[in-house]
Structures are given as structure tokens and as C-alpha cells.
Write a structure and sequence with these properties.
The chain is of the alpha/beta class and 392 residues long. The chain contains 16 helices and eleven strands. It has three domains: 144 residues, NAD(P)-binding Rossmann-like Domain (Rossmann fold), CATH 3.40.50; 164 residues, no CATH class; 69 residues, Orthogonal Bundle (Rna Polymerase Sigma Factor, Chain: A). Helices cover 45% and strands 15% of the residues. Helix 13 runs parallel beside helix 15. Bound molecules: manganese (III) ion.
Length: 392
């Protein structure tokens, strides 16, 4: 029997960033499962053509367009009859709207932090795909979740895997969390050739199809570094209990090793709809006809230790957790600037980690930052990194 507040009751769902890769897949998961839902808000930044289609298909109560020009263009041309709001504050209001039962945050970048905070303060359940939230403000976010009794479930495949491995377990009996990483497109590229990596090569991820920012983060393995930081906050373990292993097939999505030497792993095809579905139904499961994995076709699974020389961003992530305070916010801000500079062909691939390292060494350390101090560190880091880049 499913209780009244189980998966069959109607849930009001708000999707922050509905036109991004995760937002689109979340809508797909919602509409292709046996989930009883009503879309409350959809928010987008610029992609109003897709937002228009989504309003027709999902009939939300309201939409928010963060970008002002796009907002006016949308208002002029739309056939949507619901409320239409504009700006970042409206995104925060959508996140904390009283009607929401669940907020899916798939915003890209630091813009995801404040809406998540607003939703947490209302005790909402949050399915979190925005990495920057926990990376920049993990301590504040997890403290707020405790204070307001709100639940954060990470949509990421790695954290979903760990969550699934931890069902029925006690965190005190965990010895290690082992995050798997595909190694990205440059796993086998000779190190000397890293100097000449192009944007096109870096955007060509072997296993996952994702947005361009996260695809570059996967190539540098900063993405895995961020996931280590997120796991640190989500699962309340010491950073020394978190390891990363390269697993090129992306079939095992992560593992947990326990104090008796036993290890659990969660396996699945690399399809984000599976962790998205789990984040919506947790602790239950929905029935889906996503493609099934055929182990005899896959044949074998490989594992390698990551080479920190090849992936300096991963090392910088571990160093930042160790430093604590605002260090991971600096890491994140410098990375956002560097990735966009790389995508705009202003810096080389290998310079991404060099500029981030520079920012980590230069921005003053704050031990226990408030959210205002994190916002200031973020801004200061962006200005600092941009000025370094403009001088080359
Ligand atoms: Mn991931």
C-alpha cells in the first residue's frame, strides 16, 4: 500500500532551469512515468523558444524568465495564459513558493545558490542538480537543511549511487565512498599533447551528453572534484574517506566500502533519467521502461587510479575541502571564469587549472563565511581571475 503522501499523491513541482539539459530530462521523466504531478513554476534564462513549447506541453501555473530582454520577447510572442515573471528575485520566489512539494534545481552556476537557500528556508524537498550550491556554500546549505528540516537529494548519478548503496546502512559504518569517473575524453591522451587540446576535443565527451560547462568540467575532472565536495557535505564523512577511481565504461556510478570490508556498488546505463527518477521517487522507485543494461554485452569493467598530474583540478578540489571556509567557493568561481574563457578561446585547456590555483593562492581565506561573504568571495574571485586572463 502506498500512503497518502506516497508517490501516487499529486505533487506540485517547480523546475528551476527547465530548458537546460537536466530540466528537459526531468520533464521527460515526469511525463513518462506513473507520477502524479502538476508543474507549478518553470524557470528559464534565455531559451524562450523551448520554454514556450514546455508551457504548451506541461501547462505550468507560472513561468519565470531571468533575463530581462528574453522576458519582454517572451511576453510579446507567447500564447501562455499563466503568470509570467522576470528576474533573479522571481526565480527565488518560484523556489520558495508555498505550493511547491518538490523543487528541482537544475540552474547552471552560482546563480543556483540563492534560490536553493530560499527553498530550504521553507522546508521544501529539493532535488539538486546544481553543483555550485554545495560546492560554494555546502556548510551553510547543510546547516539550513537541518534547521528547517528540509531534504536535499542530489540528482547526480554518483550521489544517487551512493544514496542507493546507503539505504539500510549507518553512516558510522562506512569506511569509504568511492566515486567513479569516466576520465573524460583525455584519459589516454599523451600528457605532452594537453598543451594543444581544442574546445571541440574537450566538448566531445565519450559517455555522457551534457551542457558545455559540465562537459569541460568533466574533461578537466573538476566535475569529479565538485562531486567529491558535494559528497563530503551530503553524506557527512571526512574528506579522507572519499576516493575517486577512473572507470571508463561509466556503468558503476559509485561505490561504498563498509567497515567489514564489504563493498556495495550501484550499476546502470549512463542515462541521467535514472538518477533523476530516483531523486523524484526516493525512497521508493517508479517503474520505467528505460533501456536495460546487458552485462554480457558490456563484458568487462575497467578501473584505474586517477593521475593527479593529468587532472590537477581534482587535486585542487581535495586541497580546497581541506582548507575549508571560502576556498571551495573560490575554486568554483575561478573555474566558471576559466571554463568560459576556454570556451571563448581566450585561454588554453592547461591554463584552466593554473588560473584557478592562482585564485586559490590570492583570494584571502575566510574560515567560517556567511552567505554574504561567500557572495563577496565569489565576486572577488571572478574579478581577480578575469583581470588575470585579460592581461595575457
Ligand atoms: Mn556526475
Amino acid at each position: 500500500m502506498i500512503s497518502d503522501n506516497g508517490i501516487n499523491s499529486i505533487k506540485n513541482i517547480t523546475i528551476l532551469g527547465s530548458t537546460g539539459s537536466i530540466g528537459v530530462q526531468a520533464l521527460d521523466v515526469l511525463s513518462s512515468g506513473n507520477f502524479n504531478y502538476k508543474i507549478n513554476f518553470l524557470t528559464a534564462n534565455n531559451n524562450i523558444a523551448l520554454l514556450e513549447k514546455q508551457t504548451q506541453k506541461y501547462n505550468p501555473n507560472a513561468v519565470v524568465i531571468a533575463n530581462e530582454n528574453s522576458y519582454y520577447e517572451f511576453v510579446r510572442n507567447t500564447s501562455f495564459k499563466g503568470k509570467i515573471y522576470c528576474g533573479d528575485e522571481a526565480v527565488q520566489a518560484a523556489a520558495s513558493d508555498d505550493k511547491n512539494d518538490l523543487v528541482i534545481s537544475s540552474l547552471v552556476g552560482f546563480s543556483g545558490v540563492l534560490p536553493t537557500i530560499e527553498a530550504l528556508k521553507k522546508g521544501k524537498k529539493i532535488a539538486l542538480a546544481n553543483k555550485e550550491t554545495l560546492v560554494s556554500a555546502g556548510k551553510i546549505i547543510t546547516n539550513l537543511a537541518k534547521e528547517y528540516n528540509s531534504e536535499i537529494i542530489a540528482i547526480d548519478s554518483e550521489h544517487s549511487a551512493i544514496l542507493q548503496c546507503l539505504v539500510g546502512e549507518q553512516i558510522s559504518q562506512v569506511e569509504k565512498l568511492i566515486l567513479t569517473a569516466s576520465g573524460g575524453p583525455f584519459r589516454n591522451t599523451p600528457f605532452e599533447e594537453f598543451q594543444n587540446i581544442t574546445v571541440e576535443q574537450a566538448l566531445n565527451h565519450p559517455n555522457w551528453s551534457m551542457g558545455s560547462k559540465i562537459t569541460i568540467d568533466s574533461a578537466t575532472m573538476m566535475n569529479k572534484g565538485f562531486e567529491v565536495i558535494e559528497a563530503f557535505w551530503l553524506f557527512d564523512v571526512d574528506y579522507q574517506q572519499i576516493e575517486v577511481i577512473i572507470h571508463p565504461q561509466s556503468i558503476i556510478h559509485s561505490m561504498v566500502q563498509f567497515i567489514d570490508g564489504s563493498m556495495k556498488a550501484q550499476l546502470g546505463l549512463p542515462d541521467m533519467r535514472i538518477p533523476i527518477a530516483y531523486s523524484l521517487s526516493y525512497p521508493e522507485r517508479f517503474s520505467y521502461d528505460f533501456p536495460r543494461m546487458n552485462l554480457s554485452e558490456i563484458g568487462k569493467l575497467d578501473f584505474y587510479e586517477p593521475d593527479m598530474q593529468r587532472y590537477p583540478c581534482l587535486q585542487l578540489s581535495f586541497d580546497s575541502i581541506k582548507s575549508g571556509g571560502n576556498a571551495t567557493a573560490v575554486l568554483n568561481a575561478a573555474n566558471e571564469i576559466c571554463v568560459s574563457a576556454f570556451l571563448n578561446r581566450k585561454i588554453r585547456f592547461v591554463e584552466i587549472s593554473q588560473f584557478i590555483n592562482n585564485a586559490l593562492e590570492s583570494i584571502p581565506h575566510i574560515d567560517n563565511p556567511t552567505i554574504t561573504e561567500i557572495i563577496d568571495s565569489d565576486k572577488e574571485t571572478r574579478e581577480f581571475t578575469n583581470s588575470l586572463i585579460s592581461r595575457i
